[in-house]
Amino acid sequence: MFSVRNISATLFICLFLIGTANAGSSIKVENAWSPEAPPVAKVMAGYMKINNLSQKDIKLTSAQSALFKRVEIHLTKMDKGMMKMIKQDNLNIKAKSFIELSPGGLHMMLIGKLKPVKAGSTIPVTLKFDSGEKLEIKLSVKIDEQPQQMNHHHHH
Amino acid sequence: MPTKNIISFVVIGAISLSLGLWLSQTVRTNNNDTQIPKNLDATVLPKARPLLGFNLIDHSNQEFTPVQLKGHWSFLFFGFTNCPDVCPTTLKAMQAIWKTLPTKKGEQGHPKLFFISVDPDRDKTKMLKQYVQYFNPEFIGVTGKLDELDKLTRQIGILYGYDEKEDSNDQEYIVNHSAQVILVDPKGRMRAVISPPHISKVMAANFQTIRTFYGDE
Q1: pLDDT, tens digit, for every residue of A100-122?
Q2: A84 vs B contacts (CB less than 8 Å)
Q3: Does A24 touch chain B (CB under 8 A)?
Q4: A49 to A63, A106, B135, B197: CA distances (angstroms)
């Protein structure tokens, strides 16, 4: 016969297991930020480092934000003398690896600003992965005073 | 023709020729125009290229023609305001350069920055003004008709094009464009091309080197 204590312990373990198997456990997002844009700008960019802690490759398949009409993943690439923004249908993150979205390389393009967004605030973004996982993140909106270097994206 | 006259003709000719050669030599050594400063992260044109024959408008709806490029150094950057990554990043770099300039607005050698929108369908002058002045109140937005923009971009070697643009009412399309920053001398001539990545410290130092080398005239 199960005691109350045993039941609660079992429940606790079950909840713990569900918790670890659920959203965010295999993916960790760091340094998610967005440079403040001129108030008249209708688009902004999102940068971050996405870590895949799991043993399997994961694809970021879409992103959305309540503050923008839509969110796309783009790669800025020099092609025939022009900087082109190439829309990425998804972003593959290898097992036990990470991908970096940074100025001049991969970025999230936040399209159709619905409300004013100022430095000091955050932009909520939902990331969806092919594993079915969803991750809620917040981009810190910053006035980036530092002279920036336009990095090229890294695949590790 | 008497012999005497022939001799004087030859002598005068020889003197003029030597004088001309000497003068051109002197002018060349006193004027660095055809030489290039060393150790730069920018491509300096051995021969400055005059920029001619374009008629655009600035963000205050004033004419922007070759005349507006004279009397000061100018940085030109081509882009569009619906650009999330390259344009704001470059304008941030320009903003940082402006903070380190040894000169103030109106002083000799103080440059101007012209952000030239190659997306006139969406970038109207009023919003272009608000956009550029967010980065620095001195910055000037410029745009114009496509054929007039082409007159300028073709002389400079700047390319641009639209992706997925359906018609003139389409509000969501991408503009691909060259990301070089062009340095124009006070005579309104293209002097240097600065390619990305645009690192403000390097650009600021290069600008001062070029400025000192060629002078502010």
Answers
A1: 999 989 999 999 999 999 999 99
A2: 163, 174, 176
A3: no
A4: 15, 11, 26, 20
